[in-house]
Structure formats: C-alpha cells, structure tokens
Specification:
The chain is mainly α. The chain folds into 2 domains: 81 residues; 43 residues. Helix 1 packs antiparallel against helix 2. The longest helix is centred in the C-terminal third of the chain and has 38 residues. The protein is elongated and about 75 Å long.
Amino acid sequence: MSNQSVQTVSNSNDKLKIVLAIVAILAGVVSFFVLSGQSTVVRALALVAGLLVAVGFAWTSTQGRSFVGFAKESVRETKKVVWPTRKEAMQITAIVFAFVLVMAIFLWGVDKLLEFLLYDVILGWK
C-alpha cells in the first residue's frame, strides 16, 4: 500500500467560479426579498434564476464536475442496496416498539422502587 498523499490542484479560475456561484445564490435570495412588492411568480423566478446561474458557474469548475461524479456514484451505490420488504420493515418496527415499551415499564419500575426506598424506607417522608 502506498503512503503517498493526493493533492488536488485548483487554479484561481475555479475559485473565482465558486465565489461567483455563491454570489449568484445570494443575489437570487436577496432579489426574492427585495421584490416583495411584486407577484410571487416574479419573486420565485428571480430566486430560480439566481440558483440556475450559480449551478452554471459551479458546473464549469473542477469541484463542480467532481461533485457531479460523486453524486452519480452515490446514486449507483444506492441502487445496490437491498431494501427490506414491507413485511420485514413492519416486523422490525414492531420489535423496536415492543423493546421501547418493555424498557419504559422497566425504567418506571426502577424509578418507583428507588422512590419507595429513598422516601419511605430511608427518609420516612411518606
């Protein structure tokens, strides 16, 4: 196994694109609130336009392309997961509820026992 560290190289253009993407998101959010006198459709379009411009800037950067690759790989891995059937999920849920109920009764019993020992036997307050 190699102990070499991996270094990513990013140029100033990529950093500028990410900054511009953040500025575009902020501009969309600010325009949504500044246009409070306009109709909801106009406000929503301003917000969506800012988000689309931000996605465009981020998409062209190295970090954006690597994020898209990561997202695609995540979707591929999610498709490999074996999800439980409805019956299995219901059985597991029932077991969890039963365990919680048993633990609640146990803790209530321990609390009442300690209350009895502390107040009645040791302190004699009741």
